[in-house]
Amino acid sequence: MAAPTGNKLILPRYRRDPEGTHPPLDSPGYRSTALRHPKQPLVLLPQMLTEITGPLLGPGRIGELDNDLTRQHAEEPQGQRILVHGRLLDGDGRGIPDSLIEIWQANAGGRYRHIGDNWPAPLDPNFDGVGRTVTDADGRYEFTTIKPGAYPWKNHDNAWRPAHIHFSVFGQAFTQRLVTQMYFPDDPLFFQDPIFNSIPDEKARQRMISRFDYRRTTDHWALAFEFDIVVRGREQSVFENEEEEE
Amino acid sequence: MTTPSQTVGPYLAIGLPWADGPTVVPEGTPGAVWIRGTVTDGAGNPIPDAMIETWQADPQGRFDHPDDPRGRVPGFRGFGRCPTEPDGSYAILTLVPGAIPGESGSMQAPHIDVSVFARGLLNRVVTRIYFPDHAEANAADPVLNAVPAERRGTLIAERTADGYRFDVRLQGAAETVFFDV
Question: Any idea where the Intradiol ring-cleavage dioxygenases domain is (chain B) (predicted)?
């Protein structure tokens, strides 16, 4: 915990991620980065009060059916029903409780309910592709949804996005804010996808792939996939070190 | 162990915006100001599929958060979220934050932390909004002082009729200063 000692402010700090964990902002294989990545070097920002705090957005942000994307309309959506579950953790393996998780995705045909999506797969009148939930005391979450379809895009010749669900999490500090994409095991489209492959570190890249979970797969109802999301852990503060030395 | 960042993609507008996202405080709140701006790319074109998020202290410089060592002050959400319009514009209604303690007894000038998300941005970029009204505090601010003097201006909002203007230029002439947090 943070602690004031005299006029000196001692705050927790969050570990910076190892090189290769996150994609370079300039990733030429993903063409849209060309005009959108800063060319000047980033300036190192010391983590002070604004950075070690963050919005704590919980139950007030969600409605009763927000975590079940198959029950938001009169009838069920088309496609393979799936359960997606896991934990929101910090880098030390601690679950982050009471924290908002938001997802959005394409329908079973690979089409988003968005005015800009021209892929001629049909829209599903019973599927918005939008979900929200709040983690429980152990950092657990779950969504019921439909397995999204792959879809073509214009990035390169014969370019297809692997099936994915967008995840947005806050953690408990500005330094932990993360938007990522969850992928499915053994997707044959990984090899040609510059967004998935923008992550330099192979092990880090694999952390975006969910695990098929037969234990939670329910007979005659839904396949299950497990996806843990890990945000940065805390460094031990000077204050904590001093305590340990005593 | 951290899960890697990925782009929000072109369709973030279906999942992330909230009806009350742009209003950190309700309209009509005394002292509230609109912070308006445009997000542009390296060709100077507006970015219609971006989103701005803001995080800040209240006017007394306090956070509604348990890690504020001065004690949590509940009641001020401190968080704003606004997707960009087709012309690249965004708008956040908020209160100007107070000064915030820094390291070793120093004070930080009033500021707002900003995250920018967009198609084509594989990871969010982070910047800070400072205010032109606090010239003295800005001159003493440790973070502003770590920024090359000729680029510092990109972090200082301009006064407008109903608040401030703060443009985000992801690339190109007068590229906004972005931070590694």
Answer: 17-172
Determine which one of A13, A87, A111, A164 is catalytic. Answer: A164
Cross-strand pairs, B35: B92, B164
Rounded Cα–Cα distance for residues B36 and B21 (Å): 14
Q: What percent of chain B has pLDDT over 70?
A: 100
Name the residue type at position B157: A
Give exposure, A198-224, as e/b (b: 16+ Cβ within 10 Å): bbeeeebbebbbbeebeeeeeeeebbb
State the pTM of this model: 0.95
Of B106, B163, B89, B172, the residue nearest B129 (C-alpha):
B163
List, in order of start, the domains of chain B with CATH numbers. Answer: 12-97+112-132+148-169 (2.60.130.10)
Residue A163 contacts B, CB cutoff 8 Å: no
**Does the model's ipTM exceed the 0.85 cut?**
yes
The radius of gyration of chain B from alpha carbons, rounded to an integer in Å, stands at 16
Query: Which of B67, B128, B175 is opposite residue A53, by nearest beta carbon?
Result: B67
